[in-house]
Amino acid sequence: MEIAIVKYNAGNVASVMYALDRIGVPYTWTDDEAILRQADKVIFPGVGEASTAMAHLKEKGLDLIIPQLKQPVLATCIGMQLLCKHSEENDTTCMGVFDVEVKRFQSNDLKIPHVGWNSIHANQDNPLMEGLKKEEFVYFVHSFYVPVNPLTTAVCDYVQPFSAMLHQDNFYAAQFHAEISGMAGQRIIENFLAL
Amino acid sequence: MLTKRIIPCLDIKDGRTVKGTNFVDLRDAGDPVELGALYAQEGADELVFLDITATVDDRKTLVNLVREVARHVNIPFTVGGGISSIQDVSALLNAGADKVSINSSAVRNPKLIDELALQFGSQCIIVAIDTRWVDGKDWVHTHGGRKITEIQTIPWAKEVENRGAGEILLTSMDADGTKAGFANVLTSTISSNSSIPIIASGGAGSMEHFYEVFTEGKADAGLAASIFHFKEIAILDLKNYLASKGIPMRI
């Protein structure tokens, strides 16, 4: 199986690579269009700021390539937000795979960003949660969120319920960092690789 | 529900884990990679590695160690000690660290916090504050707690937040090594005054101390070293105890 990790200048991908190493699967870290199109699975990771990340994707034409991918794609954290239509983070137009808005958390009593382990409640038919409990703890770090919508496949609650996972066609996305979410996170990645 | 975090801290010297009382009298408490993976397995929510020597010669050793830890650990981990530039941070993040912690270098040059937050994002920048009560006030200390500064702790905590720190690791030098409990009053003051998470450190000696720091101290995470290294408290027992007392825990 060929796994490609999208290479762009957002955040630290080392944790994603080491997570794949622990599972024992090889991967290529690349921004090459041909390799991305031919891969069996594509992982689109990221930590960072939306407008900067979009600018880097545009520089390489990745903003046009990623939405056209036909194989299963797993986007995490800022990767998930960049697949949405628009983000309130510096008023950024994103790739629009998921027809939803990314909003900024607002709270007077809870700390922002949302940092730490929180429980997610998954839809029964969410294939990435195969073999896991209906409620699992995963690791989050974010200040922006996707509201619950028809594409939501798992919900987390902080300030208000929000989308922990999204799914549409071949695009799967998680707001949390599966790569550092313990055994639950590892199982989610394994389930994605088994799709 | 967002859980409170239990964080074992591994003090590193020459690639080995050590922990002393009031930062002296170091004792060897094992191999950091092995210990880190064990803690992750036992339910630690995060790990912190502090390189307490951090000389130039040590940097390569540290980067290699970080790479080994990242290979074996499936929870977030932070690396601190001697970090003073964008290059330092870049090397550690590229080796697999999820966050870095800066201390003396931020006191020396507060703009570093802004620069690092801009370059890497606030989520991976922890500012560590070592504090001690001197002449009726809390003062920031540097160099492993040995040097007093002219900066007061409470306003400094606000400043590092405003400059873009993602979390604060607050170590009470008065409590550290005493096993008499965390500095709950100061932790609570800073946490209430802050919109970023506070990791409380120094003074953990019993399971009740963690309960107190999460309730009275309003901490978001509790950090300890020797009680975990010497197996005085097992992480799972601690988490079960806290959950039974109504503290949200990942178990």
From TrEMBL, chain A:
Active site residues according to the UniProt entry: C77, H177, E179
Gene3D superfamilies to which the protein is assigned, alphabetical: 3.40.50.880
Keywords: Amino-acid biosynthesis, Cytoplasm, Glutamine amidotransferase, Histidine biosynthesis, Hydrolase, Lyase
Domain of life: Bacteria
UniProt-listed CDD domains: GATase1_IGP_Synthase (cd01748)
Domain Glutamine amidotransferase: 25-193
Reactions catalysed: 5-[(5-phospho-1-deoxy-D-ribulos-1-ylimino)methylamino]-1-(5-phospho-beta-D-ribosyl)imidazole-4-carboxamide + L-glutamine = D-erythro-1-(imidazol-4-yl)glycerol 3-phosphate + 5-amino-1-(5-phospho-beta-D-ribosyl)imidazole-4-carboxamide + L-glutamate + H(+); L-glutamine + H2O = L-glutamate + NH4(+)
EC number: 4.3.2.10, 3.5.1.2
GO terms for MF: lyase activity
Protein's pathway: Amino-acid biosynthesis; L-histidine biosynthesis; L-histidine from 5-phospho-alpha-D-ribose 1-diphosphate: step 5/9
Cellular localisation: Cytoplasm
Chief localisation class: cytoplasm
Protein's job: IGPS catalyzes the conversion of PRFAR and glutamine to IGP, AICAR and glutamate. The HisH subunit catalyzes the hydrolysis of glutamine to glutamate and ammonia as part of the synthesis of IGP and AICAR. The resulting ammonia molecule is channeled to the active site of HisF.
Subunit structure: Heterodimer of HisH and HisF.
Protein name: Imidazole glycerol phosphate synthase subunit HisH
Origin species: Aquirufa aurantiipilula
UniProt gene name: hisH
Automatic annotation (TrEMBL), chain B:
Active site location: D11, D130
GO molecular function, one term: lyase activity
Major enzyme class: lyase
SUPFAM superfamilies: Ribulose-phoshate binding barrel
Gene3D superfamilies per the UniProt record, alphabetical: Aldolase class I (3.20.20.70)
Pathway: Amino-acid biosynthesis; L-histidine biosynthesis; L-histidine from 5-phospho-alpha-D-ribose 1-diphosphate: step 5/9
Subcellular location: Cytoplasm
Reactions catalysed according to its record: 5-[(5-phospho-1-deoxy-D-ribulos-1-ylimino)methylamino]-1-(5-phospho-beta-D-ribosyl)imidazole-4-carboxamide + L-glutamine = D-erythro-1-(imidazol-4-yl)glycerol 3-phosphate + 5-amino-1-(5-phospho-beta-D-ribosyl)imidazole-4-carboxamide + L-glutamate + H(+)
This protein's UniProt keywords: Amino-acid biosynthesis, Cytoplasm, Histidine biosynthesis, Lyase
A Pfam family reported for this protein in Swiss-Prot or TrEMBL: His_biosynth
Listed EC numbers: 4.3.2.10
Domain of life: Bacteria
InterPro entries according to UniProt: Aldolase_TIM, His_biosynth, HisF, IGPS_HisA/HisF, RibuloseP-bd_barrel
Annotated family: Belongs to the HisA/HisF family.
Function as written in the Swiss-Prot or TrEMBL entry: IGPS catalyzes the conversion of PRFAR and glutamine to IGP, AICAR and glutamate. The HisF subunit catalyzes the cyclization activity that produces IGP and AICAR from PRFAR using the ammonia provided by the HisH subunit.
NCBIfam families: hisF (TIGR00735)
Quaternary structure annotation from Swiss-Prot or TrEMBL: Heterodimer of HisH and HisF.
Descriptive protein name: Imidazole glycerol phosphate synthase subunit HisF
Source organism per UniProt: Aquirufa aurantiipilula
Gene name, Swiss-Prot/TrEMBL: hisF
